[in-house]
Design a protein that fits this description.
There is one protein chain. This protein has 246 residues and is of the alpha/beta class. The protein has a single domain, classed as Rossmann fold (3-Layer(aba) Sandwich). It has seven helices and seven strands. Strand 6 and strand 7 form a beta hairpin. Helix 1 crosses helix 2. The protein is globular, with a radius of gyration of 17 Å. The protein binds iron/sulfur cluster. Iron/sulfur cluster binds next to helix 6.
Length: 246
C-alpha cells in the first residue's frame, strides 16, 4: 500500500506543477478523505471543494464540519439551496449557494405527476441539477481536478485512467489502484476518522435516499430500485467543461 501512496504523491506533485489551477473534489466518503489527505501532504495549501445536496444525511454535514477543522481542509462547499443550512453555518466553511429554482420546479412537477420524489423517478435529472451542474461551477476556474476514483469500486469504474482529459479539463485519479482494504489501512495508519455510516455497513456514501448498506460490490448500495442502481451520479461521466478554442 505504501508504494501506491508514494505513486499517488508523485502523480499529484506532477499535476500541481503542470496545472497550478487545480483542486481536490471531496465528498467526505472514505476515498475522498484518503485522496485529500495525500494531496495535503504534497501541498498543504491545495484547494479542496465539496458538492453537497439537501439530501445528504445530517451525519455527513457534521462529519464535514468536524473533519474540516481536524484536517484543516479550508473547504469550499457548492450547494443548490436558497440559504446555508443551519448545520453548515460555521465560520470555517465557505458555502457557495447556487440557484434552486430549477430543482424545486422539477421536484414539484414530478411529485404532482407521479406522487413520487424526483430521486426515485428520475435520479439522473436529480443528480444533474444537484451534483453535476454544481461541480461544473466548482471546476470552471480550474485546469485540472483531483478525485478519489478507484477501479475496484464497481462495474462503472473499471476503465478509468490515472490521468484523463475530457472537454477542457484534466482529471487526476491518484488512488485509482487502491483497494477498499488499502483505503481502510491508510485511514487506520494515519489516524483518519471515518464517516459514522461505515460502522452501519455502508460501503459507498451518497445522498440519504440513494444510499444503502451492504452489497457485493462497493457501489451496489447506490440508487437501489432505480434505473441507476450501482451507477454514477454523472460527475465522472459527463463533460464538465467546454474546451476553449485557442
Ligand atoms: S444521489 Fe439521489 S438525492 Fe442525491 S442528487 Fe442524486 S438522485 Fe438526487
Amino acid at each position: 500500500m505504501e508504494d501506491k501512496v508514494f505513486h499517488a504523491k508523485e502523480l499529484i506533485a506532477n499535476a500541481i506543477k503542470e496545472y497550478p489551477r487545480i483542486a481536490v473534489a471531496c465528498s467526505f466518503g472514505k476515498d475522498s478523505m484518503v485522496v485529500s489527505h495525500i494531496a495535503r501532504e504534497v501541498d498543504p495549501n491545495i484547494k479542496i471543494f465539496a458538492v453537497m445536496t439537501q439530501f445528504k444525511p445530517p451525519e455527513t454535514f457534521e462529519y464535514l464540519k468536524r473533519m474540516n477543522k481536524k484536517m484543516g481542509l479550508d473547504i469550499t462547499v457548492y450547494m443548490v439551496a436558497d440559504s446555508v443550512p443551519t448545520i453548515l453555518q460555521d465560520k470555517s466553511i465557505k458555502v457557495i449557494l447556487l440557484p434552486s429554482k430549477e430543482f424545486e420546479g422539477k421536484a414539484a412537477a414530478t411529485r404532482q405527476a407521479t406522487g413520487k420524489e424526483i430521486y426515485k423517478v428520475d435520479p439522473d435529472e436529480c443528480c444533474r441539477i444537484l451534483k453535476v451542474d454544481p461541480t461544473k461551477v466548482a471546476v470552471s476556474g480550474l485546469d485540472a481536478w483531483i478525485t478519489g476514483l478507484r477501479n475496484t469500486e464497481g462495474r462503472t469504474r473499471v476503465d478509468y485512467q490515472e490521468v484523463e482529459e475530457k472537454g477542457g479539463l484534466i482529471k487526476i485519479n491518484p488512488i485509482l489502484t487502491f483497494t477498499e482494504t488499502d483505503i481502510w489501512k491508510y485511514m487506520a495508519t494515519r489516524g483518519i476518522e471515518a464517516h459514522p455510516w461505515y460502522r452501519l455497513d455502508y460501503r459507498s456514501l451518497g445522498c440519504a435516499p440513494c444510499s444503502n448498506p451492504g452489497g457485493e460490490n462497493e457501489r451496489d448500495g447506490r440508487w437501489q430500485e432505480t434505473s441507476k442502481c450501482g451507477g454514477e451520479c454523472g460527475i465522472h461521466t459527463r463533460i464538465l467543461k467546454e474546451k476553449v478554442a485557442s
